[in-house]
Task: inverse folding
């Protein structure tokens, strides 16, 4: 199955890139670069998502541990990103491969124009036989640094370029049925659906001291990638020739099957916005209507609005228990939405003095959250 898939995203974690915080591991980068060069000869287009800038900066500054204060993390990222980019460029050049650096933030995903520009840039680079090396722009982001989650970034990139395969290389062999650190009888799972009911329970646990993402973030990333049809494989980056062997069909790590209906381009963009601009709480009747997945959200079923948003922003739609049931692009600002809460469609103009749309969120601009 994997042999015919030509567009691949490979994500490598901080502990692998920096040899558990000891500094950039050149031998490992050389190994990955050689594998990617070989894949390009076979017709694959590869995007590399690399963590490690903060860990490399911490090492260059001779700090004994990863700091917690945001401005120190940003300083470390600014220093480390220089060394990381230079090392990748130098190593890939030995294989006659041109690289490009792409730094993204959540704002690049949230803004539709910037999202499309990022997609166009990545696809253009791939068409010109370049390997884009993507990282989060840790020198300017705040909340994202706290998450430290390039697993999610890799899934967003996979969705952005419509990749068929997303490979996450980590310091673990894959997903086990229980924590192998505490259970010596834990069994490696070679194949599992992203909709398996016990998936997140099996993936519980934190990451290393160098990287903050554990197996749970990888499972969630696999689910996110599945919405664009990508198959995710989580495997050990220490396994020899691991990328090439995975794509040749060898049974390595854990394969997460994308057993979810794919979303169209607009729906995928809505889903990939990680931070809603606001929250709309709906009553039980509206929740039942939305469950049919055939109706739009009207003001009459809405009871509460939170946040400060404008027309066209993405909002989260929650039921009375606070559970998110959908997300969508709102047709009214937060102030106007507040003024028409509970109104029938024919009352909107009386309340606002105008009516843009009779729906708060049209069904064509809405996605439903898989619980």
Result:
């Amino acid at each position: 199955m994997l042999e015919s898939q030509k567009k691949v995203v490979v994500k490598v974690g901080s502990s692998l890139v920096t040899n558990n915080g000891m500094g950039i591991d050149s031998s490992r980068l050389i190994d990955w670069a050689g594998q990617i060069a070989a894949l390009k000869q076979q017709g694959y287009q590869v995007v590399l998502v690399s963590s490690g800038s903060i860990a490399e900066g911490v090492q260059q500054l001779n700090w004994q541990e990863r700091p917690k204060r945001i401005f120190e993390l940003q300083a470390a990222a600014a220093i480390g990103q220089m060394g990381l980019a230079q090392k990748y460029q130098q190593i890939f050049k030995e294989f006659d491969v041109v690289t490009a650096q792409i730094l993204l933030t959540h704002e690049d995903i949230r803004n539709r124009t910037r999202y499309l520009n990022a997609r166009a840039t990545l696809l253009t680079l791939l068409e010109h036989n370049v390997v884009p090396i993507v990282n989060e722009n840790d020198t300017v982001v705040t909340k994202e640094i706290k998450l430290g989650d390039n697993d999610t970034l890799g899934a967003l990139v996979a969705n952005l370029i419509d990749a068929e395969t997303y490979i996450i290389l980590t310091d673990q062999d894959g997903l086990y049925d229980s924590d192998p650190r505490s259970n010596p009888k834990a069994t490696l799972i070679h194949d599992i659906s992203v909709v398996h009911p016990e998936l997140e329970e099996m993936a519980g646990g934190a990451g290393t001291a160098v990287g903050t993402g554990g197996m749970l973030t990888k499972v969630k990333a696999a689910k996110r990638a599945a919405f664009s049809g990508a198959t995710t494989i989580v495997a050990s980056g220490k396994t020899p020739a691991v990328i090439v062997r995975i794509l040749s069909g060898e049974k390595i790590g854990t394969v997460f099957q994308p057993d979810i209906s794919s979303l169209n381009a607009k729906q995928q963009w809505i889903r990939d916005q990680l931070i809603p601009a606001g929250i709309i709480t709906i009553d039980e009747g509206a929740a039942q209507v939305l469950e049919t997945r055939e109706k739009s959200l009207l003001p009459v079923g809405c009871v509460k609005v939170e946040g400060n948003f404008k027309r066209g922003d993405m909002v989260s739609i929650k039921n009375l228990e606070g559970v998110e049931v959908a997300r969508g692009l709102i047709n009214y600002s937060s102030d106007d939405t507040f003024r028409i809460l509970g109104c029938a469609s024919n009352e909107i103009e009386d309340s606002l003095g105008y009516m843009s749309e009779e729906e708060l969120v049209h069904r064509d601009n809405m996605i439903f959250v898989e619980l």
About this structure: The domain at 276-368 is CATH 2.30.130.10 (Archaeosine Trna-guanine Transglycosylase; Chain: A, domain 4). Residues 227 and 260 are 6 Å apart (CA to CA). The radius of gyration is 22 Å. The chain is about 35% helix and 20% strand.
